[in-house]
Structure formats: C-alpha cells, structure tokens
C-alpha cells in the first residue's frame, strides 16, 4: 500500500491515475489530497484535476521516464547502492570547484560518462564538481535552467539512479558534489504547477514565471523549495547547492526564504554530521547573503563574485562592452582583489545607478566569494559562445589563472578552461513546440543586438549543430599548446594546496601593488608574491625573492630585488628573510 499525496488547493476535485485506473482522493483542510492505493516502485501515476481528463505529472515527481508531459513514476534511491559510508564531506573554504554541464562534458552526455572523467579531475586537483542543473526540463538538450519538475533528474542524463552513481563515485575519489538548482522561475514547457496551487507569483519574471514566495498560499510553495533542497542533500548525498539568480527571488516576508533555507540546511547538516553548503548566484553585491545570521545576514556559505571576474577579464582582455564598462584598469583590479566587490556603494554606468555595498572583510572571509576566469554564463552568454582561448593568447590565459588560483577567494573553473579548450559553449535548446522554438531564437538575437553584438553572429539555439559544437574534445589536451596550459593549471593548484598563505581567506592579510603604465600587478600572500605582466612587452618589477613557478621563465637581478617578467606572463616568487 502506498500513500499518494499532492498539494492542490485550487481544484475542487483531484483523482489519482494509477496504471490506467482512476481513484478518488480525500481533501484535507490544508489543501493536501491523499489516497492509499496498492502500488510498487516503477508504477506510473498522475493526477486528474476537476473535469479535465488530462493526466498531469506529480509536482514532486521523483522520476519522469517519458519526459515532463508524461506520467510520473514511483521511484526511490536504493540505500544499498551507496558505498560512500566513510565520506565526511568537504567545506568550501580551501576547496577548488569545477563547473560542468553533463550534456556537453563528454561525447555521450550522461552522468555515467561524466563519472568516467572524475580521475582526470582528481589529477587536476579539484575538490568539488558543480553540476549545472539536472532537474527535468522539456526536450533532450539544454542548459537546464528551463526546469519544470524540480524533484526529477533529467532522463537523457541517466535519471536519478545515474546521479546516485555519479555522487557515490565522486565521494569515493574524495570529490564533493555541488548541484545547481533553480528556484527563481519555471520553464515555459511542461509547467503545470499553476493548475495545482498558487505556485506562480504575480510579479513579472525575468526568464519565465516567477515563484510565489510571499503571497497567499506561499507557505507551501516555500516548503516545496526547501523540501527539494533538503532532498538533494539527504537522499542524493549532495554536498552543496548553487542557488541560481537569488536576486530574482522576490520575498518581502520578515524571514527571507534564503535565511529559512539556511536554517533548515544547518539543522540537516547537524543530523547528517557532514558539511552542507549553500552558494548563491547574486548580482546585488549585497554582503547580507554571506553574512552570518547572528550578524543580521542570511547565513549562506558563499556566493559567486562577478566583480572579480569582470576586473580580471577586462584588465587582461581589454574588452569594455556592456557590464565591463567600469572595469579594465589595474587600479580597479587591485581594488577588487582587495575588497571583494568593485561596486560597493559606487556608481555603475551599466546600471545607471549606485550599486552594491562594502563587504566587512573582518567579519566575512574571502573564501565566501567564488572567483573564476569564466563560467557557463560568461562564455555562453557571449554572442558566439566563444571561450577566452578564442581571442586571448596562452600567456594571457595563464595570467588569468594565476590571479584566480592564488587569490584569497574560493576558485572555480569552468570545464575545459584548464587546457584552453577550443570548443565554444553556446546557448542551445531543443524545444519541441515550434512557436516556443521560434520565440527563443528571435529573443536571443534581439537581446544580443541590444547589447551591440551582430545578431547574425548568434547561432540558432535550436540547431542541433549548436549543441554539437559545444561538446568538449578531450583528445586535444595532448596537443602541445593545450598540454602546456593544462600543466600550468596543475602546478598552480598543487601550489595552492601545499602553501597555507594561498588559502588564507582574510583580505586584511592581502596586499596588492601595481603599475598602470607598465601593466604589472603583484599580490602579496605571506612569503609568496604573485607577479603578473598583463602587457605584451617585458617589464622589470621591483619584487624580491626566488622564482618557484612561472609561465615564461623570468630573469632575477643579481641582488634578487627585482624580476624581469616576459610579456603576457606571470611568475610566483618566494621571499624569505635571512635567519
């Protein structure tokens, strides 16, 4: 006997559809409907609302074997399928993350195939893999941010059992798993939640229907989100969640849903006796996100920091379009490296207003901010989806890597950057509905046109070739130019792991000097000095010490008080005072 239950306060009647038969359900005062029916794992089921004979999937469906429009399937994770009993988890501080998209990480595009590449990540020096969304969305291929059934795992990736195998294998190799989850909007195809209850907000969404977090009936909607997050942690042994676009979570209640989730996560972490982390994506530059609850914050563990990315990218590449307009100088780069946010109560020309708030560096460690040379957004949201390796030389890529991987922040790599992958990462979709497909194509080109890109350069997201162009080509790692960059990344990550100065998270201990005209910048990390030449010509930098790692070999003067750094290169020197 199985108890089926669904929250559906809107319809006046709900019937359970199980293997072709209909069963009445009883309504409780709280809007939940329940029915006890003989059913076993693998049973297909759904719900019929009022007089409409359409069988709708369960909003909390654990599996959708026939896609988001088909029936749900009873499924549970096999507790005997885990071998990670000795896994005690990983904290974010001191770790290095690696963001990947399951569909393009390997030729097969499945969780099981990605599992086969975990040893490569171990050899690289990765501590966490961060999976782009794997929740169920319509179509076979896409970025995953159009999810409509948040509890189910996308079947083309292998479904829930494959996710279990992936997490278990990662833990067996000492790697934690972070999962990207989207709670700020719903996708356009397969979204039936609004027929069950007041899941959708009246506030206009940026990318789709937004979520009702503070209106009538929002208590159960918030519970829908929190229960989903806890399920990934508990049932799937996930170690961290990356919360997509938290700035789009419109919540005017006294306890923001992020704070509520923080409280619930801490409670579960104590029960499971392993660290559980919450990472926000936010463009607000609001320190409350990562400020402890005891100090009036939401208590999340970390957030993405686009300002660090923008400051490094604009300074190295020279790009100034769009939101790069305020970035690019070495003064900006030094200020951002030293304070976490560049816009911290300062005017943003891109937004046309004052933006952000200063970070209290005595209260919030730099490890609470994720730094990166690129992400799926910073690559995929370029018109052609071209990676930095498509327009920067290998020395410039190495400089960007050195600045991120030796910074006080928590570093994150985007799949393939470690060898300068030649393949783009373009925006791709596979919407079966012709009208929706056409709207996505037109909207994408119009958006880039408004930002100054040539709309003719924007690939058709619906074209299967757009997806295929984005598949990583692992074989190219052995080519000399790629192999050299890969080895540089490995050495930088090994140095970070062995030197305590490089994981020191307190910005008060960081010093930065630079020369705007000669285009060099130096980060002082204890006895370590990270010297970067962003210009194309060699420069002499007045920094003493012995070189221990470099891109192009530097020349140290006789007194070891200065170093000649080749153009587009870095050198890491160690300074030791005489005993």
From TrEMBL:
It is an enzyme of class 3 (hydrolase). Residues 99-444 form the Glycosyl hydrolase family 13 catalytic domain. Signal peptide: none annotated. InterPro entries: DUF3459, GH, GH13_cat_dom, Ig-like_fold, Ig_E-set, Trehalose_TreZ, Trehalose_TreZ_E-set_sf. Its main location: cytoplasm. Keywords: Carbohydrate metabolism, Cytoplasm, Glycosidase, Hydrolase. Pathway: Glycan biosynthesis; trehalose biosynthesis. SMART domains: Aamy (SM00642). The keyword Disulfide bond does not apply. It catalyses: hydrolysis of (1->4)-alpha-D-glucosidic linkage in 4-alpha-D-[(1->4)-alpha-D-glucanosyl]n trehalose to yield trehalose and (1->4)-alpha-D-glucan. It is found in: Cytoplasm. Its EC number is 3.2.1.141. It holds the Pfam family DUF3459. Belongs to the glycosyl hydrolase 13 family. This is Malto-oligosyltrehalose trehalohydrolase.
């Amino acid at each position: 006997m199985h108890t089926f239950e669904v929250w559906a306060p809107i319809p006046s009647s709900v019937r359970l559809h199980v293997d072709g038969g209909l069963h009445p359900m009883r309504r409780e005062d709280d809007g939940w409907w329940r029915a006890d029916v003989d059913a076993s794992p693998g049973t297909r089921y759904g719900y019929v609302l009022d007089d409409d004979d359409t069988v709708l999937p369960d909003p909390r469906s654990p599996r959708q074997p026939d896609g988001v429009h088909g029936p749900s399937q009873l499924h549970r994770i096999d507790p005997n399928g885990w071998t990670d009993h000795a896994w005690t988890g990983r904290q974010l501080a001191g770790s290095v993350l690696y963001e990947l998209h399951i569909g393009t990480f390997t030729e097969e595009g499945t969780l099981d195939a990605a599992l086969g590449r975990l040893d490569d990540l171990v050899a690289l020096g990765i501590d966490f893999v961060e999976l782009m969304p794997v929740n169920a969305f319509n179509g076979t291929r896409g970025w995953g941010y159009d999810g409509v059934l948040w509890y189910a795992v996308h079947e083309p990736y292998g479904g829930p059992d494959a996710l279990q195998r992936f997490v278990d294998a990662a833990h067996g190799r000492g790697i934690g798993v972070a999962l990207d989850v989207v709670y700020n909007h719903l996708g356009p195809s397969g979204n039936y939640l609004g027929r069950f209850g007041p899941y959708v907000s009246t506030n206009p969404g940026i990318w789709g229907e937004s979520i009702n977090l503070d209106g009538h009936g929002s208590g159960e909607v918030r519970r829908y989100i929190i229960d989903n997050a806890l399920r990934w942690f508990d049932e799937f042994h996930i170690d961290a969640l990356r919360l997509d676009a938290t700035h789009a979570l419109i919540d005017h209640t006294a306890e923001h849903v992020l704070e509520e989730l923080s409280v619930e996560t801490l409670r579960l972490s104590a029960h499971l006796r392993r660290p559980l982390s919450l990472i926000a994506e936010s463009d607000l530059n609001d320190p409350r996100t990562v400020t402890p609850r005891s100090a009036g914050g939401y208590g999340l563990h970390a957030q993405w920091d686009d300002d660090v990315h923008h400051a490094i990218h604009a300074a190295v590449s020279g790009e100034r379009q769009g939101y790069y307009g305020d970035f690019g100088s070495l003064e900006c780069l030094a200020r951002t490296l030293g304070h976490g946010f560049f816009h911290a109560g300062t005017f943003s020309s891109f937004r046309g207003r004052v933006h952000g708030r200063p970070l209290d560096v005595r209260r919030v460690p730099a490890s609470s901010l994720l730094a990166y040379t690129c992400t799926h957004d910073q690559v995929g949201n370029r018109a052609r989806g071209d990676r930095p390796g498509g327009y920067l030389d290998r020395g410039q890529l190495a400089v960007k890597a050195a600045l991120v991987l030796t910074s006080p922040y928590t570093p994150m790599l985007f799949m393939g950057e470690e060898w300068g992958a030649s393949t783009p990462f373009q925006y791709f979709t596979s919407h079966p509905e012709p009208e929706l497909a056409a709207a996505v194509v037109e909207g994408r080109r119009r958006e880039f046109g408004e930002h100054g890109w040539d709309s003719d350069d924007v690939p058709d997201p619906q074209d299967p070739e757009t997806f295929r162009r984005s598949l990583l080509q692992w074989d190219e790692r052995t080519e000399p130019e790629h192999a050299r960059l890969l080895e540089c990344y490995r050495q930088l990550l090994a140095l970070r792991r062995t030197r305590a100065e490089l994981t020191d998270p307190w910005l008060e201990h960081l010093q930065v000097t630079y020369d705007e005209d000669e285009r060099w910048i130096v980060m002082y990390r204890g006895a370590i000095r990270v010297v970067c030449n962003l210009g194309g010509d060699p420069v002499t930098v007045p920094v003493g010490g012995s070189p221990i790692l470099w891109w192009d070999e530097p020349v140290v003067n006789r007194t070891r008080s200065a170093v000649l750094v080749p153009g587009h290169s870095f050198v890491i020197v160690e300074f030791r005072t005489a005993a």
